Amino acid sequence: MVRIGVVVFPGSNCEYDAASGAAQLGAQAEFVWHSATDLSGFDGIILPGGFAHGDYLRPGALARFSPVMEAVARFAHDGGPVLGICNGFQVLCESGLLPGALQKNRGLTFLCQATTLVVTSTDSVLTSAATLGQELVIPINHFSGAYTCDDATLRALRENDRVVLRYKENPNGSRDDIAGVANGAGNVVGLMPHPERAMSTLLGSADGRVLLESFVTSNVTSNVAVA
Q1: pTM for this structure?
Q2: Which of 36, 48, 62, 131 could make an SS bond with 14 (beta carbons 3.0 to 4.6 A apart)?
């Protein structure tokens, strides 16, 4: 059975959703406290949403110094699949495992709504089971969710097929409509929308299943260069 570690920081609040999503796809999900230093035995790692360390300074800025992030970096370098959702995406950017940063939404407005995403790359552990151009209805729930980066980084993301998801109608002012990006090897991915909250049509959408299925069944073994 695939074993997925869900990292829990002080202030995380979506760990149960992430664990449930992985479990629905046949994985064994286990919580990993942020002080852990060993991730051996896991087949994938999820950094869930929430407010790690209260989002003091800025979202993810303190979580990057948690001991577990050194273990996450080693896991990623060894080719292990790593997924950051919402606050987890912010942590991955702050830690340098993904390029760019997340800033406050356009209009300084908290957003909690369904959004339509377009799959723009299937070359990642999050989108390998999806179809290029596929549209997915996935909810967002964030205040600092607008992706930003400098011109050189954006050019590199485009040229190397590292933008994996874009908003069909940009809700937050993200540069280039970006909703999710991957590292160069495609085994580290971050996105602001919450696929773990779109696992059943009874809750509005089951479109998150294809993304988490991609992650749970991924088998990336290449080494990774930190972005």
Answers
A1: 0.94
A2: 48
